[in-house]
Design brief:
Chain B: It catalyses: L-glutamine + H2O = L-glutamate + NH4(+); N(2)-formyl-N(1)-(5-phospho-beta-D-ribosyl)glycinamide + L-glutamine + ATP + H2O = 2-formamido-N(1)-(5-O-phospho-beta-D-ribosyl)acetamidine + L-glutamate + ADP + phosphate + H(+). Chain B: GO terms for molecular function: ATP binding; glutaminase activity; phosphoribosylformylglycinamidine synthase activity. The complex is a heterodimer. Chain A has 3 helices and 3 strands; from the N terminus they run βαβαβα. By secondary structure, chain A is an alpha+beta fold. The longest helix of chain A has 15 residues. The radius of gyration of chain A is 16 Å and the shape is elongated. The two termini of chain A are about 25 Å apart. The mean pLDDT of chain A is about 90. Chain B is an alpha/beta fold. In chain B, strands 2-1-3-4-11-10-9-6-7 form a 9-stranded mixed sheet, with helices on both faces. A two-stranded antiparallel sheet of chain B has the order 5-8. In chain B, strand 1, helix 1 and strand 2 form a beta-alpha-beta unit. Classes of the chains: A alpha+beta, B alpha/beta. At the A-B interface, helix 1 of A face loops of B.
Chain lengths: ~100, ~230
Amino acid sequence: MGRVVVEIMPKPEILDPQGKAVAGALPRLGFGRFTGVRQGKRFELEVEGEVTPEVLEEAARAAEVLLSNPVIEDVVRVAPVEADAATTTLAGGTT
Amino acid sequence: MGRVGVVTFPGSLDDGDAARAVRLAGGEPVRLWHGDADLKGVDAVVLPGGFSYGDYLRCGAIARFAPVMEPLVDAARGGLPVLGICNGFQVLCEAHLLPGALVRNDHRTFVCTDQRLRVENAATAWTHEYASGEEVVVPLKNGEGGYLADEATLDRLEGEGLVALRYVVPEGGRNPNGSARDIAGVANAAGNVVGLMPHPEHAVEAGYGPDPRTGTAGTDGLRFFSSVLRQLVS
């Protein structure tokens, strides 16, 4: 089974109220060095078999048509999950 | 009598009130189901407020692809009057029948209030019984009602008179959800498709709408529905 990661972020010029709320909470918890937060979305799309260029191309189209709204969001990443090992490792805490 | 379809999506909340508003305005409401690609021959359609498909992904993003939307998008492009209220407005934007998008309120809280609006375009299928510049009060209730579009689109909307309704903002105040240029509702160029965040269907019967202290009879929303019915007759 292959997996494609799609990441979507609010466009830079669009106000991100969720990110702002998180940014407001961080210093209260002692995380004082972060001067801004923007919150996006991450999707993991599963396919039978390998992640071929055709699979990536289709994932990119799905990202444009359904997963994002181009008026307010940018698709910042469409990649096979293998190339995402660093994030996975961090999340799994196995380093 | 004009037959006005009211679509029910999973998570629609105000479909009942929209149907009731159609009836009070003298029309025949026809319930349409999201899963049926059938408009049942109606003369106009209301997409009601609520939280279709739980507002998952983005408000209106999943509803836009419901089976009923296929014939609806075609019919709207062909001139069928369509009114999107609140979640219905979000669906119309996601379906690209109207430009722009609705995002989370800039103050991050849900807003629920009797809202004063100015009718900017009184020539659409849904607003022609109002006077241009007339102020009305109808309920507004949303968490993601901030209207956004890029500057070029906003300039085009202003230039072509497609801003249908604007929030009336007190001197030095701010609009209730961070909408660009205080926009509460927009229309397409043909004037048959209108979307707005406030809820005219909740202001159609005295005693059941906005507070009398707003200085209105609480029925300011009724003419959205009588406008379209009158147009169907003429």
